[in-house]
Amino acid sequence: MRLLTALLLARLDAYTPPRYRKRSTALQAKRPFVHVPYGQDAPSDVKTLACDGRVPKATLDLSHWTDNTTPDELYADTSTEIALNLAKSSEYSEYDSATVVNNHFDVDGVLSAWAATDPEEALPHFQLLCDAAACGDFGEWCSDDGVKLCYAVAELEDPSEEDGGYASALQKLPDVVRNLDAYEHLWGPGFASVCDDYDDMAEGFGEVSEGAGDIALVMEPPGRRARSPAVDRQLREADITPTRLLRASFFCGAWMYEYELVGHGWVKRLRDRRFAPPIDVDAVVSKLGAPWAPGGRAGLCKACRTAEAVPQEPQAMLELLLEADPSSAS
Fold it and tell me: Residue 81: CB partners within 8 Å, gap ≥ 6?
């Protein structure tokens, strides 16, 4: 009888009801990373998580790029936040041993890859990582530390390496995030430059204002283009949420202009930010005429610019743009 009782107790100890079993979650995953050159397919012999860049034939998108198939329950405006949402989820345990892939080196790409390869280490830094990713991809100044981490990660890129520096960056990143102040040699120069731009504008050597319609007017500091985080901070402090920017520079008695989407304007699927209708560049240039031409210095957000100085002052140019770009009207 004692033997039977002992056997029953042993079986009871070994049995855990399903609702109390320890579930495998993405947070506990330790995943490998593989850099896939742009345009090439993801590895076909394993499940893969495509962080940031869309990698053909990846099993699961963790991307905010155009035409992404990221699940709605994970989606966010940056790929880093998407990867962190996966870390918080218990619904994707089949990907705990997946391989993380990306096809380019940038701040959002590196941070999302780290969040996917080592979610348990990354998740406690959720807001810092999201702020840095928004600085990198959208030129936003969400927090001082976010801007600092953005510049630090950018400095980890190594074009001489086939993977752009991913292996080294993913190895260094945990300590950089935990001890950000100790890495001023990485973020210091970039942060100082963006602070200079902000200070000049705050002291009147430049200005950000509502402009007209959904176009904010950016009066550039003398002799240079203000860096995007400095402009974003000015917009935040003025509570202005445009979809377009008109950058104006006074030059030898006349004006040079650049017209562009706001920093997140290239993203077509947004959760928290305001959608920016695309600019019909050819129609705008045709309506405004020479010396307006396609181009600019805003990367994915560029639209058009003046190739030479023009006499129209900013308020007059804003009115012309409202007519040339009907989507800019509030």
Answer: 129, 130, 133
The span from the CA of 156 to the CA of 8, in Å, is: 59
pTM, full prediction: 0.90
For 320, other C-beta atoms within 10 Å of its C-beta total: 15
Q: What is the pLDDT of residues 205-214, one digit of tens each?
A: 999 999 999 9
Q: What is the DSSP letter of 300?
A: G
pLDDT of residue 26 exceeding 90, the answer is no
Q: What's the length of the chain?
A: 330
What are phi and psi for residue 212, nearest 5 degrees? Answer: -150, 140
User: What is the rounded average pLDDT of the residues 24-48?
Assistant: 85
Give residue 6's pLDDT. 44
Six-digit token string for 27: 């947070």
Give per-residue pLDDT as tens, 260-278. 999 999 999 999 999 999 9
How, if at all, do strands 33-35 and 48-51 pair? unpaired
239 token code pair = 């509570």
Nearest to 324 by CA among 279, 275, 290: 279
CA atoms within 13 A on the CB side of 16: 6
Rounded Cα gap, residues 146 and 133, in angstroms? 8
Alpha-carbon span 93 to 222, nearest angstrom = 54
- Report which of 40, 45, 51 is spatially closest to residue 101, judged by C-alpha positions: 51
Cis peptide leading into residue 291 (ω within 30°):
yes
